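Blinded run. Sample ID left blank on purpose so nobody reads anything into the name before looking at the predicted structure. Input follows.
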Amino acid sequence: MVELSNHMAFTLLKNGIIEEKDFPIYRYGLENLLASITGFSSMIIIGSIFGKFIETILFIFVYSCLRKYAGGYHASTHFKCYLTSMFTYILFLACLLVLTNRPSIALMSPLFLGDIVLLTIAPTQNLTNNKSNEKLRSYRKHMIKWLIIFNIISLVMFTNEFLFFHSFVINYTVAILAVASILSLKISNLIVCAYFVYAVTRASAMAMHVWFSFATQMPKS
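Blinded prediction complete.
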């Protein structure tokens, strides 16, 4: 992949399309583009084989929209990145294949937990390097915008008997990005984040328990 991106960038330079000073930039950009095409193409092919083409496209779309602004774990090489991405996708595909066709509130839990993590720590450090505070605020605003959009879409899908299964695609993808953000943290920040998520999750669980207890004790009309 490195050799191919070098060759493509050199061809652009040779034909006078780019200047010599821009050669490293185009080489790096082409390398990333080829890596993305390879990964997404592999996912689409595998998803099509298992009859999950639409779910795979939705997974790629949600992942691409949020990853740009949330940041997260980055592998040291494109090959390791490819293996990590494919492992994540295969795990996602396995979950889809074993899920039943009955709606369950448990399918929404990855979304809510992912929201908490991303709103707490994103954009993460590896994305914030060499970025101005204004740029970081812009990234966070875009991330929150996409989170709101995907939360609404997921909730609408969940309430529809024909679309609820697809809501899990969004929920899982948000959760995976949250895990990627956690993995990119320093150990001290990771401990703080883990405690915060635990506290919020426990408080939410207690609130839901109180609400369900109150709802079941209400007299039926």
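Unblinding after everyone has recorded impressions. Residues 187-217 form the longest helix (31 residues).
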